[in-house]
Automatic annotation (TrEMBL):
It comes from Salsuginibacillus halophilus. GO terms for biological process: 'de novo' IMP biosynthetic process; purine nucleobase biosynthetic process. Belongs to the GARS family. Residues 105-311 form the ATP-grasp domain. Its cofactor is Mg(2+); Mn(2+). Keywords: ATP-binding, Ligase, Manganese, Metal-binding, Nucleotide-binding, Purine biosynthesis. HAMAP family: GARS. InterPro entries: ATP-grasp (IPR011761), ATP_grasp_subdomain_1 (IPR013815), PreATP-grasp_dom_sf (IPR016185), PRibGlycinamid_synth_ATP-grasp (IPR020561), PRibGlycinamide_synth (IPR000115), PRibGlycinamide_synth_C-dom (IPR020560), PRibGlycinamide_synth_C_sf (IPR037123), PRibGlycinamide_synth_CS (IPR020559). The keyword Transcription regulation does not apply. Its EC number is 6.3.4.13. This is Phosphoribosylamine--glycine ligase. It catalyses: 5-phospho-beta-D-ribosylamine + glycine + ATP = N(1)-(5-phospho-beta-D-ribosyl)glycinamide + ADP + phosphate + H(+). It comes from the Bacteria.
Length: 425
């Protein structure tokens, strides 16, 4: 098949790699120079819709996969569908499950999908009064899309008020922050589960857990994700079955009932509480960085599975047993202010390390930083401990001025596995 992957990040690199592995011909746009190992990089800006459509027609594209949330909520899928392409991405209407956190919360409450209590505000003083009434900890979210940075888990009322001021008074997130959603703080451990969806057919992918905080020990500001791993041994088959039964299937059914049937990847960010899974957020696309550790474990042909799903079938997915653990190398200062244009030299990985490139540009044969998260390095091994050791052994010799990475990705799962082994001895 000829496949067009739209986007420029590590997620799109991983999707392109999964398709190329099964000998499909992959184009990516705009792409980045790190993707040339698996795809033809077209370089067409996602805002140039007519050029994208023309490029897809000229290359007889059989399948379009759209990665970035901005393009989904702006209706790019609808435009490709209107031209007769097979598109694996939600319509603008269905993508509002990510584009508006208040809509997602309303949907969950209407259809009894488990989540925390919430309220929505566009007035700072009223929001502060609600925080004082509810107390802390409490979660503050900009209502619209904010690249994973619009969420503050406020452990004190003062922290919540500061976050509210950033969103509602300072306009830190622009149009995405005209409203805030204040949510219940949920206790438990996080889990990410993505599913291939077409209408009311839901096919879950392997689970993952990411690390959203910038620094070791899960401290610092929220980011788009500093690393991830799969599988997540803290949870068993019964937990994952509950995620499909109580969250993913009801969400697909709810969107269909609302007249917004969902096609694409439905991502559930979950808190696994003592009362079962509860939704922290829904995304309308492949997660980043979860995709970079989930898709390398997929033995099935991703593109073929998607086409079967679009044709009304239910694909059967098969998975490798091996674990994958990935570490993000980010620009110093991320998720705040950081420099671009830093020269990247000496980044050479062993052949058995996956490198998924994101915020990178090329000039005169040299790579330069062009974003906050620059690349993700991932290792496969028989278990998470071995994968963690392997990837950090590959990272340690690198000289990476201008970049930083967490040195503890996967620590919770590895500690839990160690404690379990000790208890069994």
């Amino acid at each position: 098949m000829n496949i067009l992957v739209i986007g420029a990040g590590g997620r799109e690199h991983a999707v392109a790699a999964a398709c190329a592995k099964h000998h499909h011909h992959v184009f990516v746009s705009p792409g980045n120079p790190g993707m040339t190992d698996v795809a033809v990089v077209l370089g067409i800006d996602t805002k140039d819709r007519e050029a994208l459509l023309a490029a897809a027609e000229a290359r007889s594209v059989d399948l379009v996969i759209i990665g970035p949330e901005d393009e989904l909520t702006a209706g790019l899928s609808d435009q490709f569908s209107a031209r007769g392409f097979s598109v694996f991405a939600p319509s603008e209407a269905a993508a509002q499950i990510e584009g508006s956190k208040s809509y997602a919360k309303e949907l969950m409450f209407r259809y009894d999908i488990p989540t925390g209590y919430y309220d929505v505000f566009d007035n700072y003083d009223e929001a502060v009064a609600y925080v004082k009434q509810q107390g802390a900890p409490i979660v503050v979210k900009a209502d619209g899309i904010a690249a994973g940075k619009g969420v503050t888990v406020a452990m004190t009322e003062a922290e919540a008020e500061s976050a509210l001021a950033d969103v509602l008074l300072e306009g830190k997130f622009g149009a995405s922050g005209t409203q805030v959603v204040l949510e219940e703080y949920l206790e438990g451990e996080e889990l990410s589960v993505m599913a291939l969806v077409n209408g009311q057919t839901v096919v879950p992918l392997a689970e993952a857990q990411d690390h959203k905080r910038a620094y070791d020990g899960d401290v610092g500001p929220n980011t788009g994700g500093m690393g991830a791993y799969s599988p997540v041994p803290q949870f068993d088959e019964a937990d994952l079955a509950a995620v499909k039964k109580d969250v993913l299937q009801p969400a697909a059914d709810a969107l269909a009932s609302e007249g917004r049937p969902f096609t694409g990847v439905l991502y559930a960010g979950l808190m696994m509480t003592a009362d079962g899974p509860k939704v922290i957020e829904f995304n309308a696309r492949f997660g980043d960085p979860e995709t970079q550790v989930v898709l390398p474990r997929l033995a099935s042909d991703l593109a073929q599975a998607v086409m079967e799903l679009l044709n009304g079938e239910t694909p059967k997915l098969t998975w490798h047993e091996r674990a994958v653990l990935g570490v993000v190398l980010a620009s110093v200062g991320y998720p705040g202010t950081y420099d671009k244009g830093v020269v990247l030299t000496g980044i050479n990985f062993p052949e058995d390390i996956h490198a998924f490139w994101a915020g990178v540009a090329e000039e005169d044969g040299m790579f330069y930083t062009a974003g906050g998260r620059v690349l993700l390095a991932a290792a496969e091994a028989e278990n998470l401990q071995a994968a963690q050791t392997k990837v950090y052994e590959a990272l340690t010799p690198l000289q990476t001025p201008g970049l930083f990475y967490r040195e503890d990705i996967g620590y919770k799962a590895i500690a839990a596995a160690s404690a379990k082994r000790e208890a069994e001895q």
